[in-house]
Amino acid sequence: xxxxxxxxxxxxxxxxxxxxxxxxxxxxxxxxxxxxxxxxxxxxxxxxxxxxxxxxxxxxxxxxxxxxxxxxxxxxxxxxxxxxxxxxxxxxxxxxxxxxxxxxxxxxxxxxxxxxxxxxxxxxxxxxxxxxxxxxxxxxxxxxxxxxxxxxxxxxxxxxxxxxxxxxxxxxxxxxxxxxxxxxxxxxxxxxxxxxxxxxxxxxxxxxxxxxxxxxxxxxxxxxxxxxxxxxxxxxxxxxxxxxxxxxxxxxxxxxxxxxxxxxxxxxxxxxxxxxxxxxxxxxxxxxxxxxxxx
Length: 295
Hints:
18% of the residues lie in helices and 40% in strands. The chain is built from five helices and 18 strands. It is globular. The two termini are 20 Å apart.
């Protein structure tokens, strides 16, 4: 049903790869998100929570850690060095739960860019990205947004596309510099992953219908990916998954598991994906004079 539509959507849908590290740890935490490119001017869409959680704070977090390392490098060797480093860490507010490094790689978008700017929606989980200073845009086809939105009704089957599983491994921890970094080795890609769903409800606030709910979850990493129909027309953008308690509880039920009787309990929930409505997206793009296609 969505074979050709996925072929269309993959032309402008791109992954965001991120790597992070917490204080006093050398373990690298990979994360993924999604964006889709809007036009030849280098505009793209993703979620506000992707920008605020990964992209926007990266420079400040990395600069802070660089300052911390410079401070501790000034501490002389001796019996009190450990205590002095601990005091410096406290001044910087570092604990084992603090992220001290974030690096992002926006894959296959442009050949290079001098600046990445963003505009976050003041209310909804939506953000515009703008690549500046690129020579070549790695995208030749752009999304077409739904014009007649009365076509969005309960029972309509739609599809989302994104990059939910961060299988990339092209990163390393450099012990000499005490920093995480991208590497030329390892897997540099993550699988593109579609997931379909039926329109179940519309998400409303006092102003408008701002979201479309689907009968299946949007997966972590698909945030910022397009929602489209069987023709590849854009209906929205994945931003959230919620859960609803079903009440079909199983408590201390005896079942034969691996040839042994065991008591099991289960308290089931349904997970439902939510997407920013196409009307909200188009209004936001018009407000900021971003060109898009509509049909």
